[in-house]
Amino acid sequence: MQTPARLVAAAVLSLAALSVSACGDSGDEDAKDSPTTETTTEATSEAASDAPATLPECKAEDIAVEGDFGAEPTITIPDDCSPPTTLIAKDLVAGSGPGAEAGATVLANYHLVTWSDKAVLDSSFARGEPYPVENLGQAQVIQGWNEGLIGIEKGARRLLVVPPDLGYGAGGNGVAPNETLVFVIDAVDVS
After folding, report:
1. Within-domain flag for 139
2. Would residue 25 count as lying in a domain?
3. Pairwise CA distance, residues 164 & 172, whole Å
4. Would you say 170 and 176 are in contact if contact means Cβ atoms under 8 Å apart?
């Protein structure tokens, strides 16, 4: 009795093995359940070609600023270039008199837009209260201001684009980590 039971068990196992192996490719087009290596390679190549190209760095001319000295400006950051990695300081309106030197005080109105979300973060224009930058070069402000306001003259409007390493770096004061900051600064007085 043991021999027929062993034969039946062997037959059942053999049939099970055959039915599992029968699930393979039958050559029928509808039987393809998983992509071939060729399809996977093509999909990977297509995804790589769809990746956005690296954009060139923006220049001062790429950033649009509207408004006259003394009025709250409108800053438009473009989408077709990437944030600059070095400090940009460009006078949009010329001032007069001696330029600010290290140790000077600059009474400044400013308007700040963050690069990543193009949102206004702060504006002394809106508060109607200029900010005194005392001891320029070593003032208690971000390094981008200490460097970027050197030479500014009374009555000048200056665009400052501050890369993260001269701004808030990994984050702080309500900005995202490694944020590029775009300021328009009016020098109300230089002393």
Report:
1. yes
2. no
3. 11
4. no
